[in-house]
């Protein structure tokens, strides 16, 4: 039988992309509708950020997460829900006082970053492992905070998706697995092409793949024009894949994708062309051991 490949779809993200494409979902209704469209196209998992409906800027408002999740669950969809915990780690030092963050509400306590996860109990939530420079700010994930979040997430019965942006993050993932913080199998997302993390190249993906803990499962994505080359590389190297408007706005050069569904459909074609099968949500639950 062909190997089942899980397709995740990252629906909207938290970047400044709403000004670059009218198709990036903003409101809870739009985000939930995009989740259902991604599922219909073949995604087994949807990765969810929320945005302020008035401004389109990223938000940590639990009420917005609540509405998105309610709408997806009320539809009866079997898609696995993956909520982000990335918001709350952004730091940009003030020009006059580097001890002060110039980003309003940029940093949050570990408990605040996961409060929507503990309330809504999604199937999966992201867990960022490392600190890194990202364009014009620093994304901070202190080891003590990571471990506090990991323990609370596990106690809530939620599967963490370990976000790995660089080789050192992969080494840290191994260390945390050896400490027994995660239920088997660990689930890693290898994130490629984000400034200034690992570049979206075959060599980077191969190196990071070698660091996946024994028995672990992994997925990968590239951003912008590297989205689909990295889909193909991940499939060939035995992994799973992620696409979506969080990572890439274009279906082809110069052609904005009219939503997440067409991006998923293209990933589906690549999976099948490379002699694998598209995993259903039921298969994804079995592979990830999610009840």
CA-based gyration radius: 18 Å
The CATH class: Alpha Beta
Shape verdict: globular
CATH superfamily: Aldolase class I
- Our measurement of the CA-to-CA distance between the termini, rounded to an integer number of angstroms, reads 24 Å
Q: Short description, anyone?
A:
The chain has 291 residues and is an alpha/beta fold. The chain has ten helices and 17 strands.
Task: Explain what this protein looks like in three dimensions.
This protein is α/β, with parallel strands linked by helices. The chain has a single domain, classed as Alpha-Beta Barrel (TIM Barrel), CATH 3.20.20. Helix content is about 35%, strand content about 20%. The protein has ten helices and 17 strands. The strands form five sheets. Strands 2-3-6-8-11-12-13-14 form an eight-stranded parallel barrel, surrounded by seven helices. The protein has a three-stranded antiparallel beta sheet with strand order 7-10-9, with no helix packed on it. A two-stranded parallel ribbon has the order 1-17. Helix 6 links the parallel strand 11 (about 160-165) and strand 12. Helix 1 crosses helix 2. It is globular. The chain starts with a strand and ends with a helix.
Keywords for this structure?
single chain; 291 residues; alpha/beta; TIM Barrel; 8-stranded parallel barrel; 3-stranded antiparallel sheet; 10 helices
What's the layout of helices and strands?
Blueprint: E1 4-5, E2 7-10, H1 28-41, E3 45-48, E4 50-51, E5 58-59, H2 62-74, E6 80-83, E7 90-91, H3 110-113, H4 115-120, E8 124-128, E9 132-134, E10 137-139, H5 143-155, E11 159-164, H6 167-178, E12 187-192, H7 202-210, E13 217-222, H8 227-236, E14 240-243, E15 250-252, E16 255-256, H9 260-273, E17 277-278, H10 281-288
Parallel strand pairs: 1-17, 2-3, 2-14, 3-6, 6-8, 8-11, 11-12, 12-13, 13-14
Antiparallel strand pairs: 4-5, 7-10, 9-10, 15-16
